[in-house]
Amino acid sequence: MAQATLATYSVEVNEEGYMLQPDQWNKEIAEAIASELGIKLTNKHYEVINYLREQYAAGNALTIRKVGQSGITDIKGLYVLFPKGPLKYSSKIAGIPKPASCV
Question: What's the rounded Cα separation, in Å, for the pair 28 and 99?
Answer without folding.
Answer: 22
